Amino acid sequence: MPILIRYGHRSWLVPLAVLALVVGVDAATPVTFASVSWLVMVPVVAAGLCGPAATVLFAFLAVAVYPAVDSFWNKTQGTEDFLLVIAGAVLSVPISVFRAQAAAYVRHLQGAAETTRQVVLRPVPPGWGGVDSAARYLAADVEARVGGDFYDVLATPFGARVILGDVQGKGLPAVSAAAALVGCFREAAFHEADLATVASWLEERLHRQNLLAERLGEREERFATAVVVWFPADAPGEVVVVNFGHDSPHVLGPAGVRQLPPGDGAPIGLAELAGGLPEVRRLRLGPGETVLIVSDGVTEARDRTGAFFSLRAHLDRLAGGAGPVDPGRLVDEVAAAVLRHTGGRLTDDTALLAVRTPPVAPAEQVHQVDQVGPADPTNPADGARLSPRRG
After folding, report:
1. Integer distance in angstroms from the first to the last C-alpha of the chain?
2. b or e along 276-294 (b: 16 or more beta carbons within 10 Å of the residue's beta carbon)?
3. 81-117 pLDDT per residue, tens
4. CA-based, 20 to 30 A from 61: which of 33, 238, 343, 372?
5. Cα–Cα–Cα angle for 79, 83, 85, nearest 5°?
6. 387 close to 190: Cβ distance less than 8 angstroms
7. Is 359 exposed, middle or buried (0-12, 13-18, 19+ CB in 10 A)?
8. CA-to-CA separations, 7 to 4, 49, 149, 150, 337, in angstroms, rounded
């Protein structure tokens, strides 16, 4: 219940308002209309919204207020009504205790889910790998906060390499497959110079993951669509792309919006059926252009009438201004637009990743590298100058 979570520290106002309402109604009505027995609602409402301490307080208030109000307004009630209020007050306390224990258990599960999310979708420091990047993840299951979508930005000796993908299916098997692919990408993309080799590692990793899942009783074989983009350190005006059947990335810049060639390759895990791995493409990237990759949670988002979210139309509006598009602003604007379009009711996990080469001239970058001396592996700005290590 997001409302209770957001306003939980003010939940005591609700039973207090119920108490005031019952007293007010009893004061405003004729003697023949006695509503003071409705005080039984006060501890019951408190049990559903507040902690045990607050519930005990409101239970005592209900029991104490009943005879005072009943005698003050001279509306004599039967003993049965007073016993009903006492019974509600007594029962509300254990109910509140059980609810508090359940809430604590849910918070424990949320903490475990958050830890899982940090493993699969680790935070990316600013400037990591020598590129500006920003990512957003919106889980369809708000409480779980993690699903089958995955992304990462990697600093390698060859330049920044990024990935965004979507594992078919939902639940823990999809999360497990996503974690396996992200872990494989982090190692293969760092050590392998050839992006085609990285693609073969991803294919092999998901194949082994499916074999393991089958032995553990999983009947459904997983596959994943994904896009891998490499920003070569020696070619700032180019990107190298491998598209595993994913929606083609959009590129936003001073000249407007364009879309990279469509991904006609097979998803990860289906290369054997499709006759091979996807093609590796080297494409031009203009100065100040930002690459945006999204999952199908964006492109297939629907409103109440069933209309799809128009990503291209929204990007055209965002790219209308002059100058480069900031990755952080871009993913924030698109994520907010998707939530507005769906009314906050996401039916699928949604991931967004925006990356651009910093708006610094290549010659100036080389000069800066010459000035700083040896590469520091702990410095994000030196990510593109790291040396691969085997071990």
Report:
1. 47
2. ebbebeeeebeebbbbbbb
3. 778 888 888 999 999 999 888 888 777 766 666 666 6
4. 33
5. 120
6. no
7. exposed
8. 5, 10, 30, 31, 25
DSSP 247: P
Q: Is the pTM of this model over 0.85?
A: no
Compute the distance between CA of residue 209 and CA of residue 168 in angstroms, rounded to an integer: 13
CB 133 within 8 A of CB 353: yes
Domain(s) of CATH 3.60.40.10: residues in the chain: 121-385
DSSP assignment of 50-85? S-HHHHHHHHHHHHHHHHHHHHHTT----HHHHHHH
The SS3 assignment for 345 reads: coil
What is the spatial distance between Cα 278 and Cα 244, in angstroms, rounded to a whole number?
Answer: 6
DSSP symbol at 360: S
Q: Determine the topology of domain 121-385 in CATH.
A: Phosphatase 2c; domain 1 (3.60.40)
Q: Kindly give, in sequence order, each residue whose CB lies less than 8 Å from that of residue 7, ignoring residues fewer than 6 positions away.
A: none
- Write the Ramachandran bin of 133: left for phi over 0, alpha for psi from -120 to 50, otherwise beta: beta
Q: What 3-state DSSP class applies to 209?
A: helix
Q: Which amino acid is at 155?
A: A
The arithmetic mean of pLDDT across residues 344-360, rounded, is 84
CA distances from 384 to 184, 361, 376, 381 (A): 19, 16, 11, 7
8 A C-beta contact, residue 88 and residue 62:
yes
Residue 41: half-sphere exposure toward Cβ, Cα within 13 Å: 14
339 near 350, Cβ under 8 Å? Answer: no
Query: What are the b/e assignments for 103-133, b being 16+ CB within 10 Å?
Result: eeeeeeeeeebeebbeebbeebeebbbbbbb
The position carrying tokens 């010459």 is: 370
Average pLDDT, rounded, for the chain: 81
Query: How far, in Å, CA of 208 to CA of 214, rounded?
Result: 10
Q: Which stretch, 35-39, 66-70, 176-180, 216-220, has highest mean pLDDT?
A: 176-180
